[in-house]
Amino acid sequence: MNVVIHILTHTIQPKSIAFLKALHDDHILDFYFQSMNQTPTNNNLTNLSEHGLGARDYFHFQGFMSLPTAQSNFKEIRILFKSDRIQSHSLPILNNSIPQTNALLVLMSTKKSNDMKKDNSTIRMCCQPKQTPRKFEKNVSAERQGFILSTDKKWVNGTHLTYCFLGGPESQRKVVRKAFQIWKNTGIGLTFQELSTTDEALVRISFKQNAGSWSYVGRDILQIPLNEATMNFGWPLDTDSYGMTTALHEIGHTLGFQHEHQNPFSGIVWDRNAVIAAFKKAPNHWSIPQIEHNILNAIPQDQVKGSAWDWKSIMHYAFDKGLILKPAEFHRNGLNPPGVLSQLDIQGVKSFCPESRLEEKQMRAEQSRAIPAKSGKQFDFVFEAPATAKYTFATSGTFDTVMVVSEKNGPSLEYLSGDDDSGTDHNATITLPLVKGRTYIANIRVMYAPKGSKGSICVKRV
Questions:
Q1: Exposed (0-12), middle (13-18) or buried (19+): which is 425, by Cβ within 10 Å?
Q2: How far apart are CA 308 and CA 263, in angstroms?
Q3: How far apart are CA 154 and CA 353, in angstroms?
């Protein structure tokens, strides 16, 4: 039985800090807190959603050894112990080291914290839409395909993702807004904005109950008609912490993440019959093809960047004991991700969309600018329209790119259009009407650049 300890306090004494450090590796699952000033000053802190109640912001310690040894100021702490035995042993020590006049110690119900659920058979899981595998011409090499597929669904850094709600109660909309903010607070270069209509919303969110929760992955949403949802929430998000977990998970898909339990490097060996039996019955009622698509089928290795498996990922399902044969520990105990963004989730999204932007290079009409041929890199170009007219942004060269053109609107960017020339013989080209004096950004991600390749971009008036 896993246990959550919830402490309201002003200070933690050095004795308690030392005790937590000693316990951490073997006995504590995770540790969250609110600081007095709500501003993390240690580089080891990351803003995350809270674990159990309310909608407050918490900070997450990536390593207990970074905890200061001196008395520390906290507003609230949440400690996730691995067992009630360890919790009962720890409680007196924590009580003795926290000033009683400022402290309230509460044992939270395990039902209030998603990651602490012992029985996952009652949890409804994300059921992704069937995706059509991308097909390439015969002249596209396996190496080239691998580079393209590893970033195929990811957004160009700096993309301004607009979203709107297609109905839904306000209490559930608030959870989704909060989840977008949590992703943004990780320090990424993407921005989010809520719109009131679907006309210019890239992400369209519905709340059709009993239709499952799901989202198209990354740039796949650009292929969905404007009158259709790209994300749906099929159960209430405002009744417990699993609602926030669900919202973070589906937004993760929209950002370009796949299911982590389908990572080909996970080493998971499934008890296929047990998995099918578990997910065919209530509450999911999935067909065998749905179970295969969402759980049993591993993602092809050429579509995965990196090799680390992260069972704590927000993109990972929880599984009861007996469904996983290997690794053995999850066969015996089941697998229960914390239900919040993991450190590898944060590192992953920041690896392709870091908050620090590249230096934007100025462009003039009819003048070419070189694009360095480096696979996986992004380059940004700025163009101020000298006259109100149509202009064409065009790349040239033998590499594969995704190009996005946006208009600067104050501190944010407004997405205008994009083109993906990867796996084809043509180059990315976008023609748009531009307004004199306004500033436009061309973001170019080089998906694959063969050795010795060169490229450039040019803007010409039509």
A1: exposed
A2: 9
A3: 9
Q: What is the pLDDT along the chain (462 residues), one digit of tens a residue?
A: 334 444 444 444 555 555 555 555 455 545 554 444 444 433 333 333 333 323 333 344 444 334 444 444 444 455 555 554 444 444 454 544 444 323 333 322 233 333 334 467 778 999 999 877 888 998 899 888 888 888 889 999 989 999 999 999 999 999 999 999 999 988 899 999 999 999 889 999 999 998 999 999 999 999 999 999 999 999 999 888 889 999 999 999 999 999 999 999 999 999 999 999 999 999 999 999 999 999 999 988 877 776 689 999 999 999 999 999 999 989 988 998 988 888 889 989 998 888 866 578 999 999 999 998 888 889 999 999 999 999 999 999 999 999 999 998 877 788 899 999 999 999 999 999 999 999 999 999 999 999 888 899 999 999
The DSSP secondary-structure symbol of 70 reads S
Which is it for strands 324-326 and 269-270: parallel, antiparallel or unpaired?
antiparallel
Q: Backbone dihedral region of 116: left (phi > 0), alpha (psi from -120 to 50 degrees) or beta? A: alpha
Q: How far is CA 101 from CA 98, 151, 427, in A?
A: 9, 53, 68
> Using omega within 30 degrees of 0 as the cis cutoff, is the peptide bond preceding 433 cis?
no
Q: CA-based angle 90:95:101, to the nearest 5? A: 165
What single-letter amino acid sits at 253?
H
Q: Any idea where the domains of the chain sit in the sequence?
A: 3-112, 142-352, 361-461
CA distance 76 to 321: 33
Beta bridge partners of 5: 79, 107
Write out the DSSP string of 125-163.
---PPP-PPP---TTS-HHHHHHHHHHTTPPPTT-EEEE
For the domain with range 142-352, which CATH number is right: 3.80.10.10, 3.40.1360.10, 3.40.390.10, 3.40.30.10?
Answer: 3.40.390.10
End-to-end CA distance of the chain: 68
* Residue pair 7/58 in contact by the 8 Å Cβ criterion: no
Long-range contacts, 408-412 (Cβ 8 Å, 24+): 408/438, 408/439, 408/440, 408/441, 412/160, 412/191, 412/193
DSSP string, 5-35: EEEE-SEE-HHHHHHHHHHHHHHEEEEEEEE
- Across the beta sheet with 378-384, the strand order is 361-363, 378-384, 439-448, 400-409, 412-420
Handedness of CA 41, 45, 51, 57 (dihedral sign): positive
Those residues with Cβ within 8 angstroms of residue 52's Cβ, 6 or more apart along the chain or in another chain: 4, 6, 78, 108, 112, 113, 241
Structure-token pair, residue 439: 């500033």
Which overall architecture, per CATH, does domain 361-461 show?
Answer: Sandwich (2.60)
